[in-house]
Amino acid sequence: MCRDCAPKAQSIIASYKSGDRTIKAGQALFRPTERCDAIHHLVEGWVLLYDLVDDGGRQILNFALPGALLGLSPGRMALYGAEALTDATVCLIPHERLGPLIEHHPGIGLRLLQTVWRERNLAYDHLSSIGRRPARQRIARALLELFVRSRMQWPAHRSEEMHLPLTQEHIGDMTGLTGVHVNRILHGLRAEGILEFHYRRLRILNPDKLVDAARVDAQTVVAWTGRSAPD
Amino acid sequence: MCRDCAPKAQSIIASYKSGDRTIKAGQALFRPTERCDAIHHLVEGWVLLYDLVDDGGRQILNFALPGALLGLSPGRMALYGAEALTDATVCLIPHERLGPLIEHHPGIGLRLLQTVWRERNLAYDHLSSIGRRPARQRIARALLELFVRSRMQWPAHRSEEMHLPLTQEHIGDMTGLTGVHVNRILHGLRAEGILEFHYRRLRILNPDKLVDAARVDAQTVVAWTGRSAPD
DNA sequence: CGCGAAATTGAAGACACTCAAAGAGTGTGG
DNA sequence: CCACACTCTTTGAGTGTCTTCAATTTCGCG
């Protein structure tokens, strides 16, 4: 299920966890500023990380896929909110158990390190997208990234169509745009025969043109997949 | 010098490194897409991480302070560029040594994990700033963050004035704005008696008003400092 | 003193936002 | 199975923040 946790690693972690938790789609795992004593290791499902801004705006920080580590923060307050996009399962590891876990199983430590630094690289990628790219590129990138990452996670599904439980408002919140403007851009992409995004269903009609509109290079796509490259 | 690396940890890492490297202010450690075989552990100085966008734009991803881990990427290509803002020293750890290092010294693994996840949280913070805040708040936040982080790193300096080797263009590249617009906003902040930023020197005239303009809460500031909160 | 880089200022324009209303799709309960 | 309620999408018109382009001034440094 989770690429980052081979079965063996899973069972090792299991002996340090305080328990599992299942969350229904749409429910919150935790909210910003809420007390959060345990690290949440996502085992199954999609989870949305977000930050709320005082004027009512919301910024989506990441879409966490299985293997992600949520709730890492100094102090015991969550710095951001987390809510399940699909039904999800997390494995809870109390903060104070993390030290012993890594002490006894350094290999796990290395894996966690790689997971988090991949998350950091992804965040960097989003930063330059939101900070320096026009709306069309941001949206094309965001959708392409979601597509690539989910295909990598669940290679079974093989079509160019996928279920994406997001509204256009969500896409706006991830790209730093308004839902209304996202709608206009999507309209353009559809008119150009590049993709369709209708009621939680994304269909890529012309992958080449989408890559072109997103202005991503092969290297970046590889980074999205999370694969370590060959030597 | 580096808060994250107690002397003991330093000496352990030393036995796994391939060497040190000193970089003069303004010089590049590595450029985007350049081959990069070793992890760069920053020991001393400020390093700027950036990404270049095809239209000529640049996005600053982070200002790395001592303790930061640079050059972590899948494959052996750098996903971003790194350039020294001040004279700097890095300790180079070949990628293939990382496994053995953590294997034999799990405590180091835990520290590295905490370092990277703090960097990730900082990137998330920047995301919501750039994605959802107006120019004035972004700039106020950016300057306040730099101030807080550098004060935490070098507590010796105690005044409300600091040396910041940046141009207004740099501030634009970190906040996703143009240098010209940064200038106008800084003009406003100066007119209000909040701060002065003139030729590589930042002086905070009214800390309370700056915090107000930046719209940061205490919790976020604590996260910037990198301190783990008490239980 | 003069050169180059950075800062400053103005004017015009563009991209994205706000406000608002209508249309389409989904789900639920009778 | 239909009707209603709700959410999400779609479209228009007007506005505003930030950008672009360009000229001028200030500053640091040789």
Task: Provide an overview of this structure.
The structure is a homodimer of 231-residue chains. The first copy, chain A, is an alpha+beta fold and 231 residues long. Chain A folds into two domains: 7-118, Jelly Rolls; 133-225, Arc Repressor Mutant, subunit A. The first copy, chain A, is 44% helix and 23% strand. The first copy, chain A, has eight helices and eleven strands. In chain A, the strands form three sheets. Chain A has a four-stranded antiparallel β-sheet with strand order 1-8-3-6. A four-stranded antiparallel β-sheet of chain A has the order 2-7-4-5. The mean pLDDT of chain A is 91. The interface between A and B is large, with 59 and 59 residues. The first copy, chain A, binds a DNA duplex (30 and 30 nucleotides) through residues 134-135, 167-169, 177-181, 183-184, 186-187, 198-199.
**What's the architecture of the largest domain in chain A in CATH terms?**
Sandwich
User: Assembly state here?
Assistant: homodimer
Number of helices of chain A: 8
Query: Largest interface: which pair?
Result: A-B, 59 and 59 residues
Class by SSE composition of chain A: alpha+beta
Order of helices and strands of chain A: HEEEEEEEEHHHEHHEEHH
Structural domain tally of chain A: 2
Query: In what range is the share of β-strand residues of chain A?
Result: 15-25%
Radius of gyration of chain A: 18 Å
Key phrases:
homodimer, 231 residues, alpha+beta, Jelly Rolls, Arc Repressor Mutant, subunit A, 8 helices, DNA-binding
